[in-house]
């Protein structure tokens, strides 16, 4: 894979990570905050294994965990051969942060959805419990990738940017034509075009 293509893939990775962050805020963080505020308002705290009838305050959007997990699988596994040493928004540590935050909110939403079903006399996690395990596996894969890269046990092309001659290019010297923010794609289109086009 050429250096330009690798940088272009990293730009697409950054767009996907931006989308994953937005999805986490809308379908993970906000429902979790809503459930916690609902617990405070109604006073329905889970204590010593006893789940009160008023918990959860509303049925969380458990269905949103499916596309979110699919997006995270594509991002985590698709970025394995990429160095991801570019701007701050497209690094592997940013991916790990999104994975950990999504894992924690999905775990809480799965417990709240199961508690709502338990009040009806059913044991049902809606399959979200399996998604929690998948997200935990993605965290382990990402941490292992970071450690193996730090120990230099991965191929050099996975750890460093190399041009067509095989010369290592420092991340700060790479010309990134893709904008740093996804919403800048329609601005200054002529400036992003490669020379000669």
State the end-to-end distance.
22 Å
What is the gyration radius calculated from CA atoms? 21 Å
| Total beta strand runs | 2
Q: Main sheet: which strands, in order across? A: 1-2
How would you classify the helix and strand content by structural class?
Answer: mainly alpha
Could you describe the largest sheet, including whether it forms a barrel? 2 strands, antiparallel
Count of helical regions? 6
Mean pLDDT: 83
Unreliable parts: none
Amount of beta strand? under 5%
Give, in order, the helices and strands: HHHHHEEH
Protein architecture, described:
It is a single chain. This protein is mostly helical. It has helices at 3-42, 65-78, 92-118, 128-150, 156-159, 189-192, and strands at 161-162, 168-169. A two-stranded antiparallel sheet has the order 1-2. A hairpin with a 5-residue loop joins strand 1 (161-162) and strand 2. Helix 1 runs antiparallel to helix 2 (65-78) and helix 3 packs antiparallel against helix 4.
Descriptive key words:
single chain; 197 residues; mainly alpha; two-stranded antiparallel sheet; elongated
């Amino acid at each position: 894979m050429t250096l330009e293509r690798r940088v272009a893939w990293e730009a697409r990775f950054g767009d996907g990570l931006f989308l994953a962050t937005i999805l986490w805020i809308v379908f993970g963080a906000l429902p979790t905050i809503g459930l916690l505020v609902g617990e405070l308002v109604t006073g329905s705290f889970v204590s010593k294994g006893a789940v009160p009838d008023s918990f959860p305050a509303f049925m969380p959007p458990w269905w949103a965990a499916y596309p979110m997990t699919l997006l995270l699988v594509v991002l985590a596994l698709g970025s394995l051969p990429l160095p991801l040493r570019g701007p701050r928004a497209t690094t592997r540590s940013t991916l790990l942060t999104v994975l950990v935050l999504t894992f924690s909110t999905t775990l809480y939403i799965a417990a709240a959805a199961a508690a709502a079903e338990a009040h009806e006399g059913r044991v049902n996690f809606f399959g979200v419990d399996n998604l929690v395990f998948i997200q935990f596996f993605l965290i382990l894969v990402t941490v292992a990738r970071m450690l193996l890269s730090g120990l230099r046990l991965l191929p050099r092309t996975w750890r460093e940017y190399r041009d067509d001659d095989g010369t290592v290019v420092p991340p700060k010297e790479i010309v990134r034509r893709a904008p740093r923010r996804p919403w800048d794609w329609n601005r200054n289109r002529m400036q992003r075009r490669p020379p000669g086009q």
